[in-house]
Amino acid sequence: MGVRLCVMASLELDGLRKEFDGGSIVAVDDIDLSIDDGEFVTVVGPSGCGKSTTLRMIAGLERPTSGRIRIGDEDVTDVHARKRDVAMVFQNYALYPHKSIRQNMAFGLRMSTDLSKAERQERVTETAEMMGIGDLLDDTPDQLSGGQKQRVALGRAIVREPDVFLFDEPLSNLDAKLRTTMRTEIQRLQEELGITAVYVTHDQEEAMTMGDRIVILNDGKLQQAGRPKTVYENPTNQFVGGFVGSPSMNFLDVTAEPLSSGVRLTGAHDDFSYDLTGGRASAFGDIQRGSYVLGIRPEHVSVSDGGDQNAVPATVDVLEPIGSDNYLYLDLGESKTGFEGDGAPDFIARVSTDVEPAIGDRVQVSFDESAVHLFDPETGEAVTAGEDAPVATPQ
Ligand code: ATP
């Protein structure tokens, strides 16, 4: 096939900042990020965290308050959007309703290249074939399904062979099944074409499955950037721990008490006491007496047979079968009102389908010690043995 591989380029954001309303809103707060040639980076975070504003600044649709943007070797901060070699794919497809699919796809090419008409047509046809929309070229957008429209929008971006692709929640309008198909398709294209891409989504599962690297934003600030597995296993703070993964990481306020070997973690509830062995405790550095937040993912909580000395008593609140596994909603301790006293279950355990306790059953739960996280309750930062491990809040 004659479709040329896309020209790749790195992308660099250096102290990127965007304020609105005279500085009263800081939408993007001094973000530093380097994206390699051909890298696929997903950007995720809650509504209003600054995802779209970041993307719009890269596209040249929004002017940064401060900071620089580089594409390849060029500083494009002051370059007009039309002159930047980026293509953006939007949630609402943004197709011209009265133009044919062929015209929609050729339009950007005409604006951004000096190819002859015949060359443009050839490239459109080849790209459309590659995207599986070759037989739709003479249709208009209103004749297409949502999935086909998004394929056209993707094809229109690809045909331009830009340096960088920007995706702004491109699959949000599609149903769940089609979204999964299109995810795979975008990933396949990305690999085949070596696309450098920034993909914004509010869906952490989409971000985790698609990205070479995932970037988590909150409140305009970059919280963590890393491979999905790394971010999942080693969140740098409580926000990332809670945001990435579904159901969310369980959190519990505890007090740490150093032992001769290891550390005892005691919860506000009398029944909760958990001893970290010396080996595991050392991974957190020099833990002092004080307050921490314990974090553990649902798949690392299991219902034990009572043989585990460290097991924690709990009461089953709800059992939710999800087919492959069961989710157990648990109240720690003997009470049924919830650890926090608000009636909400304290913990979720993801257990195999043959673990089916009845509602109200008293069970013993164990934590996979290697998967216990500790966070500083004041800053939310993960406690690690690194040099900059946060110091516990003294009691
Ligand atoms: P969502 O997922 O809801 O689209 P987002 O993460 O993309 O959210 P942004 O749209 O980038 O967030 O907005 C970040 C913050 O900046 C929000 O508080 C938003 O209200 C504010 N904001 C964005 N654009 C403007 C604007 N033109 N004027 C004033 N405030 C703005």
UniProtKB/TrEMBL annotation:
One of its GO terms (cellular component) is ATP-binding cassette (ABC) transporter complex, substrate-binding subunit-containing. GO terms for molecular function: ABC-type transporter activity; ATP binding; ATP hydrolysis activity. It comes from the Archaea. One of its GO terms (biological process) is carbohydrate transport. It is a peripheral membrane protein. InterPro entries: AAA+_ATPase, ABC_transporter-like_ATP-bd, ABC_transporter-like_CS, ABC_transpr_MalK-like, ABC_transpr_MalK/UgpC-like, Mo/tungstate-bd_C_term_dom, NA-bd_OB-fold, P-loop_NTPase. Its EC number is 7.5.2.13. The keyword DNA-binding does not apply. Residues 11-244 form the ABC transporter domain. It catalyses: D-xylose(out) + ATP + H2O = D-xylose(in) + ADP + phosphate + H(+); L-arabinose(out) + ATP + H2O = L-arabinose(in) + ADP + phosphate + H(+). Keywords: ATP-binding, Cell membrane, Membrane, Nucleotide-binding, Translocase, Transport. It is an enzyme of class 7 (translocase). Pfam families: ABC_tran, TOBE_2. NCBIfam families: PRK11650.1 (NF008653). Part of the ABC transporter complex XacGHIJK involved in the uptake of xylose and arabinose. Responsible for energy coupling to the transport system. Belongs to the ABC transporter superfamily. Carbohydrate uptake transporter-1 (CUT1) (TC 3.A.1.1) family. This is ABC-type D-xylose/L-arabinose transporter. The gene is ugpC1.
